[in-house]
Amino acid sequence: MNSLRLRQQLLASAVLVTTLIVAIVAVQLVVDGKIVSSTFVAAPSDVILSLPGAASASSVPIMSTLVEVALSFLLSMAIGITTGLLIGNFSLLYRTTNGLLTALYSIPKITILPAMVLWLGLGINSVVTFATLESCIPISLLVTGAVRGFDDRLVVVARSIGATPVQIQTKVMLPGMRPQLLASIQIGLVFSVIGVILAQMFLGAGGVGTLLLNDAYELQVAQLYAVSIVFALVVVAILTACRLALERVASSEHASLTL
Question: What's the rounded Cα separation, in Å, for the pair 137 and 76?
Answer without folding.
Answer: 8
